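Hi all, long-time lurker, first post. I run a small reading group and we've been trying to get comfortable going from sequence to structure in the token notation. Rather than ask abstract questions, I figured I'd post a concrete chain and ask someone more experienced to write out its structure so we can walk through it together at our next meeting. Sequence below, copied exactly:
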Amino acid sequence: MREPEKRHLFDFLERLTHGLGEAAGKNCEFVLHDFSEPERSVVAIANGHITGRKVGDTLDVLGFQLLRQPPDGDLFNYQTTTKSGKVLRSSSVFLRDEEGEIFGSLCINCDLTGLLKLQEWLQETINSPEAGPQEEFEQSVDEVLDRLVRDAIHNTGKDVSQLTRDEKIAVISHLESKGAFLIRYSMDRIAELLSLSKYTIYNYLDEVKARQTTKETVSAQHATEQS
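-- Answer (accepted) --
Happy to help. Here is the structure in token form:
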């Protein structure tokens, strides 16, 4: 898709975002993302009080993961939770170019918190969404990186000061798989949070890629032997 066509599409979707927000009411947030600048991807938002976001805010953790591992289709009716504890029913419709590459998304987050408090009374009319990824809807890149690193360290069951070399490599592998290194200037922040030098992180990344290549080679050989 040529840039003028893409800009025309975003102009239309910005107006659509605000129109949908007016039509749906204050309990349903609509967010338009431009993935070409993930650190400030929010280009339009209606009813942003639901997640506390505004135009110019960053992609959240799930967004960066989807950039790293794009889904085959759109995502509908998954449950998310805000930092303040609101329970949302969320859907994400992705914008794709002629090659199928994702360059943006229109996301819908409907606040179910009040309805779920009345769930017993309204049991026959409310279908609670299935559990899905928990999002905190981060507003800054530092918040995104902090959470990614915190989750990666938590998976080891240790404090960062107690991590072995292999566990540190596992942390770096987790961060790479979640798209952390797609963020500009992420290396400095990750190095600070892990108390590692950037040189060491680059070495760990090389090792992660080498291990992945070896794993893929072994899997291919096994598949060949089985055929």
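A couple of things your group might point at:
The chain has two domains: 3-137, 143-226.
The beta strands are 28-34, 42-46, 75-81, 87-96, 102-111.
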